[in-house]
Structure formats: structure tokens, C-alpha cells
Input
Amino acid sequence: MGAVRAKVILLGHTPNPELIVATAGRRCYSPLGTEALIEKVRDGDPASFIAKLVQMGHVTPIEHATFTFAVEGVSRSLLAQITRHRIASFSVQSQRYVGEEARKNADGVFDYVVPPTIAALGAEAVREFDRQMREIQRFYDYWVAKLGGGRETFEDARFVLPNAAATKFVVTMNARELWHFFTLRMCNRAQWEIRELAEQMLYLVKRVAPTLFTNAGPACVRGPCPEGKLSCGRSEEMRTKYGRRVED
Output
């Protein structure tokens, strides 16, 4: 395929995530038995209660809702960043067991991500980037053949692959960690690729748990920018952007 772009699918999530969170939150303040507590939550207003919990800073109950995403078309550079979020579970396509030989790819070259700064330079720059990726493909195939050609050769042949090489993974995070992830990675000062990924993920979870993720996004959506002198100075633009999306 050659050049690729990020694609995210929400594979699954906790059933009735907002009901689960509201029930967990109510548990902290109620002497009721479980059945009575569930009935009270269902007959009440879970959304308002969740909003109150978040406003109070009592956010541990939202950890009970989890969301699982399938991600593809992103670079190994992004993978190195997202796996720093330790309260998450990852299953990543292995370069040890999945080869990147030219013969396996319809385009004759491994999938890779083109940085937008290079794309902005025009078609000639993109062609040069593609030429370089194809040259790296030649290096990779050379070492696969030189090392014997079996699957066991992928382990060391992969050392010549670049950060641009695309990968696929499945990631699961609870709602609280997603909030933290969105706060850090949707900031304009975050790296462009992980920012785009976080934005796709946020739009997906808002469809199934809108109350849980009201005002989720970069910190400036909810208050002053925490970046100080390093601020991008676009807080109002960000509030308008994500506020409009909430209403869509």
C-alpha cells in the first residue's frame, strides 16, 4: 500500500458505560443493597450524577468503564509515544513474526506514514520520500535473504526499518486514563500524529458515552492553558472546535 493514514475502530466497550459509572459512584454514598441501588440509578439521572462526580474531582468511578480500539496506519514513532501511557493494555503487530518483504506488499513497499511537513513541500518531495522508503525496502529484503530467508530472519532484518514504518495495534484504556490521554495528546503542542489519533478516539467514545467525555480534550477546553510561556495561544480556537463537535 505504501503511504497510509491513521484508521481507528472502536472494537468494544463496557456495556452501558454511563450506567456502570453512575452505579459505582452511587455505591460510595449509599447504604442500599445492590438491586435497590441499581434501580435508583436507573430511575434517576445518571448523566447529571456523572457530571457532579467529575466536577467534584471524584473520578475513580469512571475507571470502571473501558474502551478498546483497533488502530492501523500509524507509525512506529507513534507507537513509542502511546505505550508510555502505562494504564493501558496493548497488543501490537510484531515485526518479529510479520515480515515486510516487498513480495508481500501489493505496492512493493512496506506501509509507511508521510509527515505532513514533507507532504506540504509538494508532489516532488513526496516522491523522494517514497523513493527513500523503497530503498529501505531493498535493504530489508537484502538482509532477509542474507540471513536465510525464513521467518526467523525478520527479527534482525527489521533493524533497518524506519520510524515511518506503519504498525497496527489494539489498545484498551479506562475512561479516566482516556481523559488523561486526551488532555496530553490533543494539546496543540503534542506531536501531530498522536494528536490526530487522540482526536479520532475522542469522537468515537463520545458517540457511546457523551456524558463521560463532556469537555474531554486538551486542558484549555476546560480552563486556562497549563503550558505557560509555551502556550500555542489558540485556547479560544480549541474551545470552539471541540465545543462544536460536542453539539454535532
